Amino acid sequence: MVSRVIPVDDFDLVIFGATGDLAHRKIIPGLFRRFVAGQIPDTAQIIGAARTEQSDDDFRAEAAKSIVEFGGVKKDDPALAQFLPLLSYVPIDAKGDGGWKELKSRMRKRAIHAFYFSVAPALFGDIAERLAKNGIADSKSRIVVEKPFGRDLQTARALNKMLAQYFAEEQIYRIDHYLGKETVQNLMAVRFANILFEPLWNAQYIDHVQITVAETVGVAGRGSYYDKSGAIRDMVQNHMMQLLCLIAMEPPYHFDPDAVRDEKLKVIRALEPVEAIDIVRGQYQADEDGDGYLADSENPDSRTESYVAMKVRISNWRWQGTPFYLRTGKKLRARTSEIAITFKEPPHSIFEDAGTSGAPKANELVIRLQPNEGMNLKVMIKEPGPGGMRLVQVPLDMTFADALGPEGADMPDAYERLIMDVIRGNQTLFMRGDEVEAAWAWTDPIINAWEESKNRPEPYDSGSSGPEEALRLMHRDNRRWKEIRA
Ligand code: NAP
């Protein structure tokens, strides 16, 4: 398996928020890896910007530390010495007037210009305005904006409107790093590059779909931020919605940014409102190893959910009658993200006569996003040996790392891939403004109904699979959640 690296054109990438956590944990180590892979020309410039006063050399030294710490690179790796000269730094306060001229003077005319807004969303407007006012960004520049993109429909609309004053939609790259994950893109390959699944990919053959994103960590350390958000805003409105769209969408006519995003938008618009009875919120409790949510969030009265499970229906021809169950939470039993598609049982079993045992079970396709990215298709076979026609369900298991060899296993991190897509000018894996707004339009009533109610989230034990109520949500439909395990 030979990995193919297609170098990108020469670029100047400005990272606003270059002294921050995201820049140092993800963006800079990611750029280093792409450089090592030979994808970034050695003439490219990566210009850091933030309020902290520091020299180019200070910034390079900090970047080197982060690459070593978060990129698993040795201090004396010769590639580090080759990469660091690409970096430079300009002190800029997004709300001030200093530094912008200096930034402009460093940008080259013929290179691609990209601006990564790795700062709080409250600063997006200040930066966009100053880039335009100072003539730094032009109609070919790209901007990358981080989540959260608004906290409801109104704020997302305001953000879209504000950015639209300075940039065309084709210039705006709204990051949802889930879309950069290899297996998430594989969803499209599995569905649309094989004849096998698509004819069965509908309510006639699929009983239900489960989408699980489970984390073992709690919110300690970022509790005050999380408490204003909660699982629905933090995970469902964006990441899980994107997964749902990729599973449920119609085949786009082409693998083209707008063709793909048009189809995703249709799914979001077809989502039915979620009834109160079809949603369970939870909050993790203290255990001997740590505090509960209320202590971690430093808000003893918090009603914010650290867990949510819901039954979602898509109102269109393809999915009429097939529920999608979503669940996500913190402090759960294992860290895992997966999509499980349970097919219907065969309409008639020929194996029920004397001498046979074990009725056919429904086929199941499990797509694992993490850990051990891969796919697992459960099929029925005859149990080997004498003793009649005994059936047994076995997994056809494919871990991508095993199937594709060491080079295939060396998959770029989501951020690496997405930043390279920005430089290439490919928006397929980024959310369009109308998509984000449609997702909020569906999520807002769920959040509002909760905020108006006096209910508290259901308690659940840290290290468990979530609240009991979530089990009942499934039992009511005679179904079961898949076990949460790594
Ligand atoms: P952070 O660690 O708090 O960093 C914020 C950055 O903004 C710092 O570099 C800070 O540098 C800079 N900054 C603050 N005020 C500024 C101003 N007035 N002018 C210019 N720069 C200013 O935050 P983060 O975790 O990196 O997150 C950045 C963005 O990414 C946020 O929107 C966040 O929601 C999003 N995000 C982060 C993660 C993550 O894993 N960290 C994941 C998903 C999304 P100075 O203090 O030097 O100015």
From TrEMBL:
Enzyme nomenclature, EC number: 1.1.1.49
Chain intervals for the UniProt region annotation (Disordered): 453-474
Record's GO cellular component terms: cytosol
Keywords: Carbohydrate metabolism, Glucose metabolism, NADP, Oxidoreductase
Binding site for substrate: H177, K181, E215, D234, K330
Residues noted as binding NADP(+) in the record, renumbered to the chain: R51, K147
UniProt catalytic activity: D-glucose 6-phosphate + NADP(+) = 6-phospho-D-glucono-1,5-lactone + NADPH + H(+)
Family label: Belongs to the glucose-6-phosphate dehydrogenase family.
The protein's name: Glucose-6-phosphate 1-dehydrogenase
Protein species of origin: Paracoccus amoyensis
Gene from which this protein is expressed: zwf
